[in-house]
Backbone:
């Protein structure tokens, strides 16, 4: 039996604060040129893989 | 790449060959992936060489949620749409690439496919990707370089995995602004 898929931890204390800080940062965040280029690279990879498996895509993909 | 790739959900009748450097991943793919799927615990998707039973890479995903204790002082600072007791997520339970396809950036491409698919093509709300990354520097660096963060910053080095998350709202913002700025159509 392989290692079980782990439960995502319930966030408490400092870890919960860090998570909410992150959410707040995202609220106030404006993408930089680098961030946008990174998103385009992600999209290019998605399209490349999508193209090669376009014949039998399961729902949702 | 001088071969064609196909993609499918792993099924009971499949007999793909897969071998990577991690015994646990090999064991999961060969013995546990189908039973997990049959029990609706996790679905495994395989990229394989077209017309063959040679797997190139696979990933396994399940529904997940990020839950946190109620930190009211922090929640007040958030927009009202974010004051939820939990946030829907998709968990990458496994992600592996066959040893014969090393060096083709498949890990990166699959991660990007998951990011884009769950941001724009998903049928349910999902704002985070979560992952149990193997606790070794190379794997952790791979996820960090792809924008993942630790749920718990300081954890024992003895742990076999580390829980990490990626915020799809960031990718959505970056992508949509890039589309507008560079005047690219999303197809």
Residues:
């Amino acid at each position: 039996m392989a290692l079980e898929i782990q439960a995502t931890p319930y966030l408490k204390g400092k870890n919960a604060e860090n998570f909410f800080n992150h959410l707040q940062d995202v609220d106030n965040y404006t993408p930089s040129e680098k961030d946008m280029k990174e998103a385009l690279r992600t999209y290019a990879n998605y399209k490349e893989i999508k193209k090669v498996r376009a014949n039998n895509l399961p729902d949702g993909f | 790449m001088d071969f064609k790739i196909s993609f499918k959900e792993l099924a009971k009748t499949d007999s793909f060959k897969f071998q990577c450097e991690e015994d646990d991943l090999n064991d999961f793919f060969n013995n546990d992936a189908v039973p997990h799927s049959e029990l609706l615990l996790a679905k495994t998707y395989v990229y394989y060489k077209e017309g063959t039973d040679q797997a190139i890479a696979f990933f396994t995903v399940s529904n997940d949620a990020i839950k946190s204790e109620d930190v009211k002082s922090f929640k007040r600072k958030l927009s009202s749409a974010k004051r939820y007791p939990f946030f829907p997520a998709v968990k990458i339970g496994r992600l592996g690439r066959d040893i014969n396809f090393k060096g083709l950036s498949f890990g990166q491409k699959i991660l990007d496919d998951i990011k884009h698919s769950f941001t724009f093509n998903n049928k349910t709300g999902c704002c985070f990707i979560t992952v149990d990354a193997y606790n070794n520097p190379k794997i952790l660096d791979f996820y960090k370089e792809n924008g993942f963060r630790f749920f718990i910053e300081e954890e024992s080095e003895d742990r076999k995995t580390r829980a990490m998350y990626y915020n799809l709202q960031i990718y959505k913002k970056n992508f949509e602004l890039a589309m507008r700025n560079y005047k690219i159509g999303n197809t």
Remarks:
- Chain A touches chain B through 48 residues (CB under 8 Å).
- Chain A has a mean pLDDT of 80.
- The helical segments of chain A are 13-27, 33-52.
